[in-house]
Amino acid sequence: MKVEANKVVSFHYSVSDGGGEPVDSSRERGEPLAVLIGAQNIIPGLEAAMLGREAGERFQVEVAPAEAYGERRADFVQRVPKKYFQGPEKLVPGMSTVLQTKENGPRMVVVLKVGSSVIDVDLNHPLAGKTLSFDVEITQIRDASPEEIAHRHVHGDGGHEH
C-alpha cells in the first residue's frame, strides 16, 4: 500500500531547522505520529514528500519555508490582553506559547514583551522563514475510515479521540 489521499500514515520523524540539532522528534515521545493524508494536517512539503512511498521506507527531505510555515513577516506582531493566555505570569520574552484565536484556533506564538495587562507576541510560527530538514520513517499505512475522512483527522491510536 502506498501513501496517497485518504490513507492514514503513521511515521516517526525528527526535524531540524538548519542548526543541526533536532527541534522536534516523535522518537523522543516513543510513538509515531498518525495523520490523514490530504486533510492538511501536516505541512504541505512533508506531505508531498510522503506521497507514493510505502511502509518501512526511511528518507530525508528538506522543506522550503513556502511549503512549511511560510516566510517571516516583520509586521506580524500583536498586543494581546493577558487574560487570553494560560499562566501569563510565567511568560517571559523569547518563550513560545500557544494562543487560542477565534479565526485559526490554537496558534504558536513567541512572547516579545510582557506588560502589566498585555503581552506583545510575534505571530510568526517559530519555524517560519526556515528551511526544515526532516528524517522520516513510515511505519504503517492503512485505509482511513469513512468517519476519519468526514472529520478530516485520524481517530484512535496516534490520532484524536471523540
Automatic annotation (TrEMBL):
Reactions mediated catalytically: [protein]-peptidylproline (omega=180) = [protein]-peptidylproline (omega=0)
Cell location: Cytoplasm
Domain of life of the native organism: Bacteria
Residue ranges occupied by any PPIase FKBP-type domain in the UniProt entry: 6-81
Cross-referenced Gene3D superfamilies: 3.10.50.40
Pfam families: FKBP_C
GO molecular function annotation: peptidyl-prolyl cis-trans isomerase activity
Keyword tags: Chaperone, Cytoplasm, Isomerase, Rotamase
Cross-referenced InterPro entries: PPIase_dom_sf, PPIase_FKBP_dom
SUPFAM superfamilies in UniProt: FKBP-like
EC number(s) given by UniProt: 5.2.1.8
Role noted for this protein: Also involved in hydrogenase metallocenter assembly, probably by participating in the nickel insertion step. This function in hydrogenase biosynthesis requires chaperone activity and the presence of the metal-binding domain, but not PPIase activity.
Protein name: Peptidyl-prolyl cis-trans isomerase
Organism encoding this protein: Dokdonella ginsengisoli
